[in-house]
Write a structure and sequence with these properties.
This protein is an alpha+beta fold. Helices cover about 55% and strands about 15% of the residues. It has one domain. Helix 4 (about 65-75) packs across helix 5 (about 80-85). The protein is globular. The mean pLDDT is about 95.
Length: about 120
């Protein structure tokens, strides 16, 4: 079953990062732009605001969000598998999660105009 990564393609920073990962990913990951995408909201059971706030992933019938999505991406891209191995360790994941939440919050503020 494919992992579906839900990301904000209208955010320049998000788009650049995801486009980079797309170059190296295989068919295990499907990339879904959440911008004005009602289907993404239905699949994830998340509001548009929640989807803008954090990256999400649908995997085996459950929704994962935030920094944990990066672990799945990195695990599925051989070039970045070393990051998965580093950040899956609890103390390291704790720091990744804090960094992600700070960065995601500022990106959300930058893109909040999309909610109008």
């Amino acid at each position: 079953m494919k992992n579906k990564v839900f990301f904000n393609n209208s955010c320049n920073i998000c788009r650049a990062e995801i486009n980079h990962y797309k170059k190296y990913s295989n068919e295990n990951i499907e990339w879904v732009d959440i911008t004005n995408n009602k289907e993404a909201q239905q699949i994830t059971s998340k509001s548009y605001k929640a989807l803008l706030r954090r990256m999400h992933l649908a995997q085996d019938g459950k929704i994962i969000e935030g920094a944990e999505v990066f672990l799945v991406i990195w695990k599925n891209i051989p070039k970045y598998n070393f990051l998965y191995k580093i950040f899956k360790i609890k103390p390291m994941f704790f720091f990744l999660k804090i960094f992600y939440e700070i960065a995601a919050y500022f990106l959300f503020l930058k893109n909040k105009h999309l909610l109008k």
